[in-house]
Structure formats: structure tokens, C-alpha cells
From TrEMBL:
This is Cysteine-rich CWC. It holds the Pfam family Cys_rich_CWC. InterPro entries: Cys_rich_CWC. It comes from Solitalea canadensis (strain ATCC 29591 / DSM 3403 / JCM 21819 / LMG 8368 / NBRC 15130 / NCIMB 12057 / USAM 9D).
Length: 80
């Protein structure tokens, strides 16, 4: 029997159903994370997050990387 649990997202407080007992039906199924994303989630939270927050974290990390890359390029251009 599948183990489904009602939860509130610790990041946004949205309610969702965690379906760890039937992972292919869980709202997080199919999402993939690189090491930086996994670390950010693990360091900030100790429970499941809703799909929207997981996607937002992925976007925030991607945006942060783009900003850092832009700053590196600007630094290189300033030294020329």
C-alpha cells in the first residue's frame, strides 16, 4: 500500500501530498538536481518541499550563476 502524507512546504507553507511510497506519483517525480541544487536544498531544509519551490530554487541558483558569470566578464573587460 502506498504511503502518502499531507505536508506543508517549509519554504512557502503550501500544502501538498508527499507520495514517497509511490514515488512515480509524487509531485517531485521527474525533477532532477545538480550537486549545487541538492546542497542548497539539503542545507536549507530538512523536509520535502513543494514542486513550485523546488523549481524556484533551481531558477534562483541558475540566475545566481548567470550573475556571477556576468561579474566575471565585467571584471575581465575592465582590466583590458
Amino acid at each position: 500500500m502506498a504511503n502518502h502524507e499531507s505536508k506543508n512546504c517549509p519554504r512557502c507553507n503550501a500544502s501538498f501530498e508527499c507520495k514517497a511510497g509511490s514515488i512515480t506519483q509524487c509531485q517531485c517525480f521527474g525533477l532532477t538536481f545538480n550537486e549545487e541544487e541538492k546542497e542548497a536544498i539539503a542545507c536549507g531544509y530538512n523536509d520535502c518541499l513543494c514542486r513550485n519551490c523546488l523549481l524556484e530554487i533551481k531558477q534562483e541558483i541558475k540566475f545566481k550563476a548567470l550573475i556571477e558569470k556576468k561579474e566575471q566578464i565585467n571584471t575581465i573587460l575592465k582590466t583590458r
